[in-house]
Amino acid sequence: MKDFRLYAITGEQFHPGRGMIEVMEQAILGGADIVQLRDKKSDKPELLRKAKELRELTRRHGVTFIVNDHLDVAIESDADGVHLGQGDLPIEEARKRIGAGKIIGISTHAIEEARLAERQGADYIGVGPIFPTKTKEDVVAPVTVSYIREVASEIRIPFVAIGGIKLSNADQVIAAGATRICAVSEIVGSADVKGTCEAFLAKLRNGRQA
Ligand SMILES: Cc1ncc(COP(=O)(O)OP(=O)(O)O)c(N)n1
Ligand SMILES: Cc1nc(C(=O)O)sc1CCOP(=O)(O)O
Ligand SMILES: [Mg+2]
């Protein structure tokens, strides 16, 4: 898969009065290079409509587009891939349905899950939740930056840190070895979405030099 640095996930509850496409376009203009549609409320037709809009936006900007949870919506909207949770369908089955050229990402919360995801052919893993977060209802206890250190030293596929990551704590995440960051509320809930993305990327760039 095309490498990425800043992963922006939709969260419409964080920007009342502003449209999702407008907000995600600001994230992309700020440098987000992968976008995920995460929507726990909409029904299938609504999800598909949003996925198609985001597909058009991301294609126009040359940015990777992932659909959370819904493999069928990912396929029908011609997304670049799907993000699975630990309780979702197995990677092997998802791969058969979505095809070899597409991206499969999976959430992990412990090194055993990361090892398994790598063996099963995931293209990237989510590593989290690093810090407490209110964005995800059924979230597990924070894994802390020590899990980033474990993954960075052992896992070879790309990993992205997620969960409670803010501009104010991103330096800890980067110092632990993360070279890719994912955020929901800090990005889409910001009054300056573009500036927030630029600030995350500046931190990631500085971290690489450190
Ligand atoms: C990049 C990334 N990492 C982790 C998640 C969480 O996925 P999951 O565990 O399936 O939980 P939900 O997002 O479905 O609530 C993610 N979506 N993206
Ligand atoms: C969607 C999600 N997945 C997580 C995981 O640990 O797998 S944490 C999380 C929520 C991230 O939202 P925020 O950046 O607002 O904390
Ligand atoms: Mg999920």
TrEMBL record:
It is an enzyme of class 2 (transferase). This is Thiamine-phosphate synthase. It catalyses: 4-methyl-5-(2-phosphooxyethyl)-thiazole + 4-amino-2-methyl-5-(diphosphooxymethyl)pyrimidine + H(+) = thiamine phosphate + diphosphate; 2-[(2R,5Z)-2-carboxy-4-methylthiazol-5(2H)-ylidene]ethyl phosphate + 4-amino-2-methyl-5-(diphosphooxymethyl)pyrimidine + 2 H(+) = thiamine phosphate + CO2 + diphosphate; 2-(2-carboxy-4-methylthiazol-5-yl)ethyl phosphate + 4-amino-2-methyl-5-(diphosphooxymethyl)pyrimidine + 2 H(+) = thiamine phosphate + CO2 + diphosphate. Its EC number is 2.5.1.3. It comes from Cohnella zeiphila. Signal peptide: none annotated. Transmembrane segments: none annotated. It holds the Pfam family TMP-TENI. InterPro entries: Aldolase_TIM (IPR013785), ThiamineP_synth_sf (IPR036206), ThiamineP_synth_TenI (IPR022998), TMP_synthase (IPR034291).
